[in-house]
Amino acid sequence: MKSNPYYVLLLGVIALAGCSSTGFVSTWKEPLDGPIDFKGKRVAAIVLSKDEGTRRVAEDTLAREISKRGAQGTAGYLLVRGENDTANVEDAKRKLREANIQGAVVMRAVSSEQEVSYSPGTAWYSGAYYGSFWGYWGYGWPMVYDPGYLRTDTIVHVETLVYSVEGDKLLWAGRSKTTNPSKVKEFIQELSTAAAKEMRKAGFIE
Q1: Cβ 9 vs Cβ 54: under 8 Å
Q2: Among 91, 113, 137, 181, which has the highest number of CB atoms less than 10 A from its own CB?
Q3: Cα-based distances in Å from 145 to 81, 119, 128, 131, 142
Q4: Portion of the chain with pLDDT greater than 90, in percent
Q5: Of 44, 42, 100, 55, which Cα lies nearest the Cα of 82?
């Protein structure tokens, strides 16, 4: 069952059971001579969401994660605000140029679906003694039936893109899969850490 691609990022809190788990299912990087160096440079944190409040929480979190890695993370909403501004490419281009933005990390939820799994029930058997209380006691407890259970997990796929804004070029791309994401802030932190790990593995960053 598929839902709105913005499902994750339209909610301030995603009320799901269980712990989240994020991994990348595919990645790509532009062939480079060495690791990319955004240290000390301004890098925009952009999370595509129709909900302005959720976008701000997500971009603030992503900007902090970028800054932890040596760049100057800047939340996108501080540069380009509202639906009208984001729809105007030339205006957005001018604002990022004026802010001396040299790189950008962009995240977008591309799909959300529910996955149902079933664990079958089990029963244990031990002699049929119905005639007496204690006989049944000895029979009944071992025969308790565990009816099993249905588990519903929410699977969210997000694309993470790293651009050189200065050169207008895609440098790194990855698609991740998260099972049962929690609050937006924790989700973005987990996703950022997983993305950094993949980028480091590929030699994209140090």
Answers
A1: yes
A2: 181
A3: 58, 13, 15, 21, 9
A4: 48
A5: 55
